[in-house]
Amino acid sequence: MSLIRIEGGKPLKGRVDLKGAKNLVTKAMVAALLGETPSTLLDVPHISDVDVVERLLNLHGVTITHDPKTGDMTLDPSNVEQARIVDIDAHAGSSRIPILFCGPLLHRLGEAFIPGLGGCEIGDRPVDFHFDVLRQFGAVIEKLPTGTRLSAPDGLVAAKINLPYPSVGATEQVLLSATTAKGLTELRGAAIEPEIIDLIAILQKMGAIISVDTDRVIRIEGVKQLKGYTHKALFDRNEAASWAAAALATKGDIFVGGAKQIEMMTFLNTYRKVGGEFEIEPAGIRFYHPGSELQPVVIETDVHPGFMTDWQQPLVVALTQAQGLSIVHETVYENRFGFTEALVKMGAQIQIYRECLGGNPCRFGQRNFNHSAVISGPTPLRGADIRVPDLRGGFSHVVAALAAEGTSNVSNVQLISRGYERFIDKLQDLGADFQIEG
Ligand code: EPU
User: Fold this and answer.
1) What is the reported pLDDT for 84?
2) Is 53 in the pocket of ligand 1 (CB under 6 A)?
3) HSE-up (13 A, CA, CB side) for residue 368
4) Which residues have a catalytic role annotated?
């Protein structure tokens, strides 16, 4: 399924249920490589990013069962082995997760081969922090035309690491490398997203000793051995925010089963400022349009506990319907406004600027990146032919098409299933008017 024809102008109403967070489960699956015994991960969504990691783990000898309905997954790493480079290479460009295989494979096998990485094109997305970290643990890294070969025949040793930016992936790299490295690792400048805290909880269940101190300092005392874990994955707060934005943009009312307040507080504050209504219940959060005008807001995306970059794209669609000027300053990725071109084609008034339109210190300020947006609303949206550019941008395009008057043909929709489970079914459950065309 790659093309859907959407008849817009109908509010999304009903219930969707979340499973575990894409940005946790894929890492939790990699963590299972470190255990001496099998692990069980609960609430694993059936999305293509999970499939990619599953196939890569299979290639390395991990036996996996996954019930897509319940989300129960078991991972047995008893027979971990080096995969054939040609097999690994077949997965080049499909995901960014393979970079996190480095530490666990170096521990288990003394060597690793990582294919060229993929993921959404929302910036340059270098992996320099990852390789710097691995070198500090004692890994030898060799770049090949097809990928990267790493070795650590004498094992990894603890290090004192200072990240130049609280990168989620680099923090995970440190955690997955340090838990069984010799000695005490101290990480400064760590990311502290809830998905990272959940990964730490998993590692603690496995036998790791990790403390999260104030000021982004994480200390990891290396242990000799880890065992398998049983863990229910943290809910997907990015998916929750996406449906919340969809409710607002389409004047709808969506109950998001499994969404929780604490991990979404920053989002909820902004949602309220825009005028969105929500009710927090034990089973989830109901998000709905107030019935009156939406208000403009100023947002600066940031690392946790700031406003997540992944929330920005779906919310921008709702902001095209707010009364006045909204400003979004993207400080995490340098190129995450490409998706607005399609919104402009549909009638939105959005200007993109190179300048920092905000007060937060930003790495992109003096450089030639389009990383600030001014959205002027309300502007009626009209149907158009659009192509999904990336995961969150793609979700936004579909929401824009649902909010617009008239017909839209949205192509490349399959990309959305990288991170949204049963996306098409959920649209159906919410009463969206669309047809699958190809
Ligand atoms: N960066 C570097 N060098 C590195 C690593 C990162 O310069 O070695 C830069 C990146 O280019 C970016 C910034 O640091 O500008 C932040 O990157 P980070 O490492 O924090 O992001 P990530 O681990 O690659 C994860 C999520 C993203 C999410 C970000 C921020 C996964 C698989 N991906 O990416 O999710 O936006 O953290 O929270 O966990 C998505 O779900 O659509 C998505 C893109």
Assistant:
1) 85
2) no
3) 0
4) 120
